[in-house]
Write a structure and sequence with these properties.
Mean pLDDT: 90
Order of helices and strands: HHHHHHHH
Distance between the termini: 16 Å
Number of domains: 1
Low-confidence stretches: 196-201
Shape: elongated
């Protein structure tokens, strides 16, 4: 069964695979001398990149929502679905940092104090860490059901586990700029194939 929602999810995953590295490799993330300076510059400007940041969050949540729908048919256990909900929540909370940029644009801040920049940075890192923990457990949950997964999802689960380990190290997390799009393309292929190969357990 290849429903429209699966086709839309496949398109969202492909778009995410393309736009994710475009955003995180954009010049505005590499134009400052320090993390504080980069964050300050980002908060002070509400532009195209902020819109793209929001779009990335919407696309990622869309992909996970449809993946959750697929797993609800494939697995009796609700654990994978619950973990996907957690991942969606942390993605939404991470991308909610754009409201600080909106607040500055509306004049709610006369200037950007260093404490605000530091607070936003710490908050973003915490959300990324919590997302990585949820995704790590989710990947393990999938690998525990290895025989029930099709070939694409087996590779996806393994790749997601590796990406989470990279994220935990922080420094190696930069590799995920390139690994994450690959994972999204795998999901796009999975969605494109639809549910016709899903075995109801």
């Amino acid at each position: 069964m290849n429903t429209p929602s699966y086709k839309y999810a496949a398109a969202a995953a492909v778009a995410l695979a393309i736009l994710f590295p475009v955003y995180w490799l954009s010049p505005h993330w590499w134009s400052g001398d320090s993390f504080t300076q980069i964050m300050t510059q980002d908060i002070q400007v509400l532009d195209f990149w902020d819109g793209l940041f929001v779009l990335l969050g919407v696309l990622e949540i869309t992909v996970y929502a449809v993946l959750r729908k697929q797993f609800s048919f494939q697995f009796e256990s609700a654990t994978p679905s619950f973990l996907l909900i957690l991942m969606m929540v942390f993605v939404a909370l991470f991308h909610a940092t754009v409201f600080v940029d909106v607040g500055y644009a509306l004049g709610l801040f006369a200037h950007v104090p260093e404490t605000l920049v530091l607070g936003v940075g710490i908050y973003a890192l915490i959300m990324l860490f919590l997302y990585a923990v949820s995704a790590f457990i989710f990947a393990i949950t999938l690998l525990m059901r290895f025989r029930q997964l099709n070939g694409i999802m087996k590779v996806f689960a393994t790749g997601l586990l590796i990406a989470c380990v990279f994220q935990f190290t922080v420094i190696l997390g930069i590799i995920n700029i390139f690994l994450f799009p690959i994972l999204m393309l795998l999901l796009a292929l999975n969605f494109y194939r639809g549910e016709n190969e899903v075995e109801v357990i």
